[in-house]
Amino acid sequence: MKQSKHSIPPASVRRVLFHRIRAVGLGLLSATALAGCGPKEGGAPAGMGGPMGPMEVGVLTITAAPVTLTRELPGRTSAFRVAEVRARVSGIVQKRLFTEGSDVKEGQLLYLIDPAPYQASLDSARGTLARAEANATTARLKEERYKQLAAAKAISKQDYDDAVANQRSYEADVLSGHAAVQTAQINLGYTKVISPVSGRIGISQVTEGAYVQESQANLLATVQQLDRLYVDVTQASSDLLRLKRDLASGRLKADEAGRARVKLVMEDGSAYDEEGTLSVSDVTVNATTNSVTVRAIFPNSRGDLLPGMFVRARLEEGSSPNAILVPQFAVTRNSKGEPTTMVVGANGMAELRVLQTPRTVGNQWLVSAGLKPGDQVIVDNLQRVRPGAPVKPSPVAASAVIPATASIEH
Fold this sequence. Notes:
This protein has helices at residues 11-37, 116-151, 157-190, 237-249, 398-401; strands at 55-61, 65-86, 91-96, 103-104, 109-113, 192-194, 199-201, 211-212, 219-236, 261-265, 276-281, 291-299, 310-327, 332-333, 339-344, 350-354, 359-361, 364-367, 376-378, 391-395. Helices cover 28% and strands 33% of the residues. The protein has five helices and 20 strands. The chain is an alpha+beta fold. The chain is elongated and about 135 Å long.
């Protein structure tokens, strides 16, 4: 029986057709892929992203310029002189002769302690001295007579020696009498309590009628000299060593007297209008904080400064005549923690430089090594530039990347 022309082919025929169709499809796909990987007409090889030229970057040309180097440190004010007025004799306070908070002069009478007992002691000492002087006169005359009698052998030598010893004993009493009188006079003088220095006196610690004791040295009041004040700040010992080293090498220039000038910023942020000078630095390093106390003196003619105020002192450490400054955002650190920056090399390639940056000046780094005048520091497209890549430098004005306020180190 014959098959119809619309009948289904056998299974073996269907398998052969399926394999042939799949082979043709795979061939077409391979051809398409190879065509896509081949070079395009008039273009660069696939995967290169098109023609690559030098990347345009903004650069800042390095110049050396004189810079005044300052350092801002916190500190406290203290009086130029502090005198604690204390009782030096015991007794009742009879009078207080000053107004609290007023200015007093050196030698001004502040308190009066009852002088009667000390006046009596002085009178007694004077009486004892007069008796001793009379006895000494009698002994001296007797010694003179015995001396003549001893020469004529009218008395024994022992009698003459006793007369000499008696005379010297009374002379010693005279010396003791003078000392007792002087002591009594001193104690009587201490009943008048005077100011040891000129300055401003604080609150009185005693009132009239109070009993003060010499043995306890009771504090009566405190006088502080405020026409000048100290400002004590702490500075790291390493910074102090660096400062001395730079001054000795001539890298930094101090004033004619060799001292740094200091300016003051008050608690509210305002600037104190009078300038001070660096007075002295301590000779001992604090073992706990590894810092040194530095003291400056400020005039206080108007009395605006008071002891104990918190201030910030700006120390002018000197001037660097040929300083090189780089914006902080142009400096990064490598895996070793060293500061680095990108510059345009001589061959037009980006170059990574390792710097030495001992400190900041405002928002810039002071560079002591790694850059020289004329170098072009890359300040734009820093995220895309890699060392060794060709770059096309485009000058950038310093005012566009460095604010005018970058003159003081914080």
